[in-house]
Design a protein that fits this description.
The protein is α+β, with helices and mostly antiparallel strands. It folds into 2 domains: 37 residues, no CATH class; 65 residues, no CATH class. The chain contains 1 helix and 6 strands; from the N terminus they run αββββββ.
Length: 103
């Protein structure tokens, strides 16, 4: 699940405004890190020589992906997608079932 941005409330209270500023600065370290702002896609079936379209749910073009589990030794290659904000097209050199972290 993608991280949500911190929302500040309009307030005239100095203490609340200061607290919100500090929380916003702290949370920004996480929401601004693209590696932490991704989705895990489980049990993606890859067939050697075929293109697999993976819906990633980021609503933006992914920066990258990691294979976090695989049931076989496999190399995965990213291909061009006509809808990169919603789909990651990949191909593999072997048939396998993988879990991906797309960020």
């Amino acid at each position: 699940m993608a991280l949500k941005r911190f929302k500040r409330l309009n307030t005239n209270n100095y203490e609340v405004a200061t607290l919100q500023s500090n929380v916003s600065e702290f949370v920004g370290q996480f929401t601004g890190n693209p590696l932490l702002n991704g989705n895990i896609i489980k049990e993606v079936v890859l067939v050697s020589g075929e293109i697999t379209a993976v819906s990633h749910g980021l609503d933006r073009k992914p920066i990258g992906y990691l294979v976090i589990a695989a049931n076989a030794s496999v190399d995965i290659y990213e291909l061009v997608s006509i809808t990169p904000n919603s789909v990651l097209n990949i191909a593999a050199n072997a048939t396998a079932i993988v879990n991906l972290y797309i960020f």
